[in-house]
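Hey, I was hoping to borrow your eyes for a little while. I'm sending you its amino acid sequence along with the backbone structure tokens. Take your time with it, there's no hurry, and the full record follows here.
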Amino acid sequence: MNMQSPSIAQRAALYLRVSTARQAEHDISIPDQRKQGEAYCATRGYQLVETFVEAGATATNDRRPEFQRMIEAGTTKPAPFDVVVVHSFSRFFRDHFELEFYVRKLAKNGVKLVSITQEMGDDPMHVMMRQIMALFDEYQSKENAKHVLRAMNENARQGFWNGALPPIGYRIVAAEQRGSKTKKKLEIDPLHADTVRLIYRLFLEGDGAKGPMGVKAIATYLNESRIFTRDGGRWGLAQIHAILTRTTYIGEHRFNTRSHKNREKKPENEIAIMAVPPLIERDTFDAVQARLKSRNPMVVPARVSSGPTLLTGICFCAKCGGAMTLRTGKGSAGGMYRYYTCSTKARQGKTGCEGRSIPMDKLDDLVADHLEKRLLQPERLATILSNLLDRRQERIERRREHLAELNRRITETDQRLNRLYDAIEAGVAALDDAGLKERIANLKAIRNQATADAERTQATLDGSGSNGITPTMIGTLSVAARESLRMEGGGYRRDHLRAFAQRIEVADDEVRIMGSQSDLLQSLVAASSVESAANGVRSSVLKWRARHDSNV
């Protein structure tokens, strides 16, 4: 007899993953994992509340969107599920230490990881077994990767291409057939080879009208001459620099130069050199490298500036969507000035984007002034947040009603248990009666589940502010939020400003500030609370994410 009741079922989440298209077709496919997972939940009496599907992602690291979404949900208080079900522990993680890290992280929030095919308990022996199995999975994954990489290195040393897009100026051709596999090599692509040679010539000699050009000047020259990249796009500084420094063009393509996991450079003895037809003379290539080293030019796109700048990272060009980055220059009087400019325009010139530049102080003041004098005024906040506050209050009232119902169920169950205990003490019922034992076990299970649900509901009420936020409180929050923007010296607090304005778009005639109503409310509450904490910033709360449900 099934003693598990739907009302007391533990809530489960399925995590499904395949790492390659081949595995999805021939191994444990997503539909297969889903079917087995749903059947497993049904037999265990679990209530399946959510399914996370990760197609084509390796389990050797945690750079998996659905995995991260599942971990974020499982570590939120209260968690929306009690159990995470996987087909095998290798679906979850192949790295032993990271597996244990996430198992413990979920366990701290009361969430358990179980495997359909490797089921085990929580006693020390079973924990050790899981660790041993994870070690074998990790070892097998690393051994497979090592053998594949060794084969690819040898393939490159023999002059065969391992796949991916070849460098511009080359194309892939079939070289020979080995069983069912077609070995491929690179040959010169006549359509784009001249573009590569032109770039080298412009860097060393110029275009005939003027002398040698820098990387930025070459990009501008190609774009203005309508000489496009291989995919029909415009040239950027990084692309030009890559062509000028790539040894492939002198016949030596370097394979396995960086670690796949962390992109760190590998030592020279691990790099495989693949012979390809040369496009550039070695003397020409060496001259280019010597000139690059002597000039030490800025050959990469300007990095986003951090530190005291307010808006880098959240400010974008309205025309092309590119980031507005900080630039500096000298004025006519010799002083330095700072301004935000469209990064696409900075890299590619006006042919890439005609977006404008704007003095840093002017844009900073414009945004902060708008937030302080318009968005954070009580009347404006009340208008923006009215519907959100109403919905929030409705949710709180529903949770209170649910909590009251759970408490009634706990009280009733305790009363029924007490009556059974009284019957046993009076000799009316026998303690060894199998039916009586089952009734007591079921009532205890109902009481325990109701208690757990009541605790989760109470925690949710506590976390959302059980008293709610009324329109009359908006005035107080408004004052605290406006004060939080300003520093004593008259400047602005960077983290506080970014809490209220997550995305800024700069057009020729207007500046648009965007964000989310729900996060605006969170930021208001946080700004009010940190005023009493020496103006500290709770960065985990002060974040107005880019969900465009409000345009302020």
The chain has a mean pLDDT of 78. Residues 378-425 form the longest helix (48 residues). Residues 20 and 26 are 10 Å apart (CA to CA). The chain has 17 helices and 15 strands.
